[in-house]
Amino acid sequence: MTVPSWSWHRCNCSRDCQQDSEKARGLHGHGPAWQNSARAIENASQRFLQDHLDMGRARNLISDWLKEGYMPSEGSLNVGEWGFTYTELSRTFQRKKARRQRKQEKMVDQGKIQSN
After folding, report:
1. Left, alpha or beta for 52 (phi > 0: left; psi -120 to 50: alpha)?
2. pLDDT exceeds cutoff 70 at 88
3. Which segments carry the region annotation Disordered (predicted)?
4. Do 32 and 26 touch, CB atoms closer than 8 A?
5. Measured on CA atoms in the order 31, 37, 40, 46, is the torsion positive or negative?
């Protein structure tokens, strides 16, 4: 399987490394190169295997943005060429961000973590 072999690409620099902000814009992590490759694999699986192979492209892109704490502005990435709309990604991002916030608040209330 191809996906695990891509998991090695990660910045091991300090937390304030320039790559962190570049990741949120899609320049690292699940950005343009990964999206284009994964979309090609999905399309080829449909064509040659007559089955859809879900590479989790939207989920992984949003996960990168959640880790960074923000979503790139509309127009900074051409998500349309990846088969997404900015609106659908934004809705999913906001929903997951709110869910993550509620989970963190619950853990603070239960004394499992300290608030920031």
Report:
1. beta
2. yes
3. 95-116
4. yes
5. negative
Q: Determine the residue type at 90.
A: S
pLDDT tens for 14-35 read 444 455 455 555 556 888 889 9
Q: What pLDDT was estimated at residue 38?
A: 94
Helix (H, G, I), strand (E, B) or coil at 40: helix
Q: Is the four-CA dihedral 28, 15, 103, 98 of positive or negative sign? A: negative
Sign of CA dihedral 97, 98, 103, 109: positive
Please state, in angstroms and rounded to a whole number, the distance separating the CA atoms of residues 77 and 37: 16
pTM beyond 0.85, yes or no: no
CA distance 6 to 9: 6
- Cβ 71 vs Cβ 93: under 8 Å: yes
Q: Which residue has the higher pLDDT, 81 or 24?
A: 81
Query: Which residue stretches of 9-115 are H helix?
Result: 18-24, 32-49, 57-68, 86-109
Structure tokens at 7: 């998991």
Six-digit token string for 58: 């939207």
